[in-house]
Amino acid sequence: MMFLVGQGQRVVAIGPTEQRHCPKCGTQTAFEPQLSYKFGQFDLLFGFVYDKRYQLACTQCNHG
């Protein structure tokens, strides 16, 4: 019998961008609201989500 176990991480855009000043880029850039989460999976039948976070990140350098 063989069991498949896996894990991963995804970042999903959840809204329109906003113009803000990015301290890392040093310019006025677009920031995108995102949902970042990690997930686990067991035998392709059962999955679960953990470490869910909402963030606002720069589209140029991904600094949030």
What does this 3D model show about the protein?
With 64 residues, the protein is mainly beta. 0% of the residues lie in helices and 64% in strands. It contains no helices and 4 strands. The chain has strands at 5-13, 18-21, 28-42, 46-58. Strands 1, 2, 3 and 4 form a 4-stranded antiparallel beta sheet that branches. The radius of gyration is 16 Å and the shape is elongated. The model has no long low-confidence stretch (mean pLDDT 89).
Which key features would you list for this structure?
elongated
Brief rundown of the structure:
The chain is mainly β. It has strands at 5-13, 18-21, 28-42, 46-58. Strand 2 (18-21) and strand 3 (28-42) form a beta hairpin.
Structural class of the helix and strand makeup? mainly beta
- Mean pLDDT equals 89
Low-confidence stretches: none
Number of strands: 4
Helix content, binned percent: under 10%
| Secondary-structure element order, N to C | EEEE
What does the secondary structure layout of this molecule look like, with pairings?
Blueprint: E1 5-13, E2 18-21, E3 28-42, E4 46-58
Antiparallel strand pairs: 1-3, 2-3, 3-4
